[in-house]
Amino acid sequence: MTTITDLALDQKNKVLSLTFDSDKVTELSCEYLRVYSPSAEVRGHGPGQEVLQTGKESVNITAIEPVGNYAVRLVFSDGHDTGLYAWKFLIELAENKENNWQDYLARLEEAGHQRQA
Question: What is the model's pTM?
Fold first, then answer.
């Protein structure tokens, strides 16, 4: 099983780098992590209750707080700090980054929202 061995936040570029036990490094943007937050605010309380996050292009991570040996809490510059990013969830976000991102962009377009550069 793949495990995360290090997290490194680059606030200037708004990217969280995950280093895996294979020495592979995957960069996840703060926007991506914010719009895919595991919180009830984003995911809802069941299937079909997800809330599309818009206007998160400039969001940054201001703090990373460890939660036991199984997760981290990410604190975002827009005040969002709920939802625990379990290691398994972060690995899934990394593995599915391209598909998730394309899905997010499609949902934004469907909702008539234009991402800001």
Answer: 0.95
